[in-house]
Amino acid sequence: MSGAALGLEIVFVFFLALFLLHRYGDFKKQHRLVIIATLLAWYLCFLIVFILPLDVSTTIYNRCKLAVNSSPAESNGSYVTLAPSKQKCFKPWSYIPNGIMPIFWRVVYWTSQFLTWILLPFMQSYARSGGFSITGKIKTALIENAIYYGTYLLIFGAFLIYVAVNPDFNLQWSQLQTIGIAAANTWGLFLLVLLLGYGLVEIPRSHWNGAKRGYLLMKTYFKAAKLMTEKADAEENLEDIMEEVRKVSESIKYNHPLRKCVDTILKKCPTEYQERMGRNMDDYEDFDERQNSYPSEKSLVKLHKQVIYSVQRHRRTQVQWQILLEQAFYLEDVAKNETSATRQFVHTFHSQEPENKIIQYFYTPAVEWYWECLLRPWFYRVLAVVLATFSVIVVWSECTFFSTKPVLSLFAVFIQLAEKTYNYIYIEMACFFTIFFLSICVYSTVFRIRVFNYYYLASHHQTDAYSLLFSGMLFCRLTPPLCLNFLGLTHMDATISHQNTQPTAYTSIMGSMRVLSFIASGFYIYYPMLVVILCIATYFSLGTRCLNLLGFQQFMGDSEMTSDLIDEGKELIRREKRKRQRQEEGENRRREWKERYGNRDDSTRNRAVHTDPKESNFSETNNSRPLSKYTRSNGRTERDRIELLQDAEPLDFNADSINDDPLESDSGR
Questions:
Q1: How far, in Å, CA of 88 to CA of 453, rounded?
Q2: Percentage of the chain with pLDDT > 90?
Q3: Structural domain tally of the chain?
Q4: Is residue 371 in a domain?
Q5: Which of 1, 16, 469, 634 has the most CB atoms around it within 10 Å of its CB?
């Protein structure tokens, strides 16, 4: 079992990262290199979180073994061994042999740092570039990252010159490596505290509000109003870009040298626009016959970039609108079914996607009613209380983890109590739940935040390549300081505990932070205390209020703008609901008409086909030619009338207007 736990977690974390990436990314449409790079970044960060508890239990066992096998007289200068325990040290079930974890952490850490500081920024510029060739995209990416890379090289070069000139400093390569790690962790810790302070309050509050049906429904109406505005803006932007593409396509003909670039742009356009532009093409006109000013390749690159962005944004808003409609309809159904006397959950609309038969067998309407109307609100309340308790413990430990005598950090107290009895299962579970809760608070904030339209993680395969790569960069920069903060909370970091005991394999590859004493003894210890201020600011929604004052509409219960947007969203949902009801009613009527008169019509056609040819000849000879002419036309019109009645959609005279499009009504007049 020594390496089985490590192998199982490696496989499990890989499929977890693959599942999350499949939820947010699109494997079919996005570039394979973007998918592989993002998957690798997410996988390495999740792997660090899951493997670190095994490192802690293995380190505690090694300390115990070292304390039992040595005496105080035999202790060397490197380690001051603990007092020998009266009971024997038991090897943990997840014990990892010596020498494996340092190599594992070194490979994982430096790979993640290479991704976040070098490869992923370059791939961001490459994915966002509008070039038509690989060479052009690489050139654009290098130019955009020249300032980014040049800034870091300038700072590092100035630091090396200062060290070389100053005789007081005698730094070796290992110390320079430690300084680089400390600089990266300092930047990550600065961002970590900001995200952690938001997540510690918002996650319990969101689960508590999840038990309020009216709150969720009002917030859904608010989202519908904002999303409709964004959807209309995306459609207008797409129309403008497609108009520019049409002009370029008409000006650059088939024999122009830049026609290949135009064809590449047209392939990125939606299908309906491609067909519309294809009808207006005149390939027989030579571009040399007209002395027009043709667009340059640089302008086509810019247009290509705009087309990719506008099409992605339009597709995302369309999908999100449909998902939000389903969510609003479901919440309205829950509100209606709460007063149901039959205790059977009734849906207004049937699910458009086929349901799993196993889930449909167990998740009956009665079970759904009890879960949605009775059990789910209480479950969310209990979960919110548990999460709030964890948040309070984390805030307390962040403010007191520097105290070693007495030990005030609750996480350190839990680990030390388990260490006395060498209960490795309890140690690993306590470490796992602690770092897992910290990771959820930080990572969920990364998934929630949105920087205008440049960075936005949208579910249901609607996240663009730039946002996926940016999330991988954030994860790789946040995970190492998150793990160091966790080791400090549990006093497994020698810099915090001030004990010269055997360190964990993870802290051993970080080097001794005592090279930079002002960071190890100052910033790392006192900066996390700012999480208290951030939690208070998040609790009173200070950031939301500031954004609302700046003109960015945020959901606030005491705001007049919020009330107006809720009313607007409610009206939009009502219109969409009425529209879908009319569609379902029309489909049901057409289905009933076909079931009633479809067989009768088929039988009449069969009779006409199987009539006796003698009778038909006799009737044709007896009747006059004009009479037979009118008889055939009347039969044809009768059949056409039946087909039109079958395909006709019933009109809804209760609607606001029979025709929604005023242009069609004008053309009809």
A1: 59
A2: 39
A3: 1
A4: yes
A5: 469
